[in-house]
Amino acid sequence: MKIAVLPGDGIGPEVTAQALKVLDVFVREGMPLEFEQGLIGGCAYDQTGHPLPEATFKLAKEADAILFGAEGGFQYETLPRGLRPGDALLTVRRELQLFANFRPVVAFPELVGASPLKASHIDGLDLVILRELTGDLYFGEPRGVHAENGVQVGINTMRYDEREIRRIAHVAFRTARTRRRRVCSVDKANVLETMELWRSILEEVGREYSDVTLEHLYIDAAAMALLRSPLHFDVIVTGNLFGDILSDEASMLTGSIGMLPSASMGEGTKGLYEPVHGCAPDIAGQDIANPLASILSAAMMLRMSFGESAAADRIERAVRRVLGSGYRTADIAEPGTKQIGTAQMGDLVFAA
Ligand code: NAI
Ligand code: MG
């Protein structure tokens, strides 16, 4: 079980270190986990001139799973496309065809007070956003900025082919079968042709899963419904851009983006696991970032890539126990709780 560890930039290394700390519990018990670190993102650019060095890509390609931290940093935003930190992650997702991004959104009962919503609104919240990850405006051609008659024009193309839609649809319905058997597909089919195709393929695939209820929402209505009645949802399947936005929105239901793990899967068991958040330059290097999203991503890795569900359950229970004892990083702290730092949170989950 070879794991490529790619901590990246900003808070990435800080939170990934806590996930590794927790995984060490299982190494000590004899689970054959092997770790190999690689450079990715801005730090890789600084050291090698490229955000995705050849050695890192090879490591990611050969590993059974990838544990990723975060990439980015405002100092890199003026670099040419292809050399920006984010391009490294997009390349790994695309080249390894990790097209299915699972973003579970669970309200820990211990944390309902940290959500801006009323407890009764989110009590029992347990949904998963399934975001398509290798198509859409992020990759469609043509793209770019050019001049037309002396006027600058920016272009991106929303593109999906039917095969890409079909394969993510199957993942959505199969996932729903392991849960409450409801799929909500989110699109903008009233305005966008790409999404008209999306909706018709979802309908077509849905007929193969008569035991699963399929509904459709437009993205604007879905954004509203997610706040008004979050408990309504089980599996939300959507495209790359809408999934990005909806999952950040959904993170606030749980209290903090620092609580949201994710898994990006292809057709097999190989996956890339990462917190949903970015490299958070505003809090990097201060030992205040919440490492739970990264720790919970490691739990998803044990479950989805290695079939170690019992170990994954133990991590999730340990997180709940630590929260239940009142320990909080700054992002989820409330009056009456005990505020601690990143490393201490890792220590407590390890101990639990
Ligand atoms: P961000 O997710 O890094 O930060 C958004 C806000 O959430 C900030 O206020 C930050 O302090 C807070 N936050 C994030 N993670 C947290 C944690 N674990 N604990 C406590 N608070 C946390 O998104 P932002 O600010 O839009 O982007 C910052 C950089 O990260 C940019 O360079 C961006 O390109 C990159 N980024 C990278 C991603 C990735 O690696 N997959 C995803 C999103 C952004
Ligand atoms: Mg995002």
Automatic annotation (TrEMBL):
Reactions catalysed according to its record: (2R,3S)-3-isopropylmalate + NAD(+) = 4-methyl-2-oxopentanoate + CO2 + NADH
Gene3D superfamilies per UniProt: Isopropylmalate Dehydrogenase (3.40.718.10)
Sequence ranges assigned to domain Isopropylmalate dehydrogenase-like in this UniProt record: 2-349
Binding site for Mg(2+): 220, 244, 248
InterPro entries: IsoCit/isopropylmalate_DH_CS, IsoPropMal-DH-like_dom, Isopropylmalate_DH
Comment on bound cofactor: Binds 1 Mg(2+) or Mn(2+) ion per subunit.
Keywords linked to the UniProt accession: Amino-acid biosynthesis, Branched-chain amino acid biosynthesis, Cytoplasm, Leucine biosynthesis, Magnesium, Manganese, Metal-binding, NAD, Oxidoreductase
GO molecular function: 3-isopropylmalate dehydrogenase activity; magnesium ion binding; NAD binding
Gene Ontology cellular-component annotations: cytosol
Site positions per UniProt: Important for catalysis: 138, 188
GO biological process: L-leucine biosynthetic process
Its EC number(s): 1.1.1.85
Family: Belongs to the isocitrate and isopropylmalate dehydrogenases family. LeuB type 1 subfamily.
Name this polypeptide is given: 3-isopropylmalate dehydrogenase
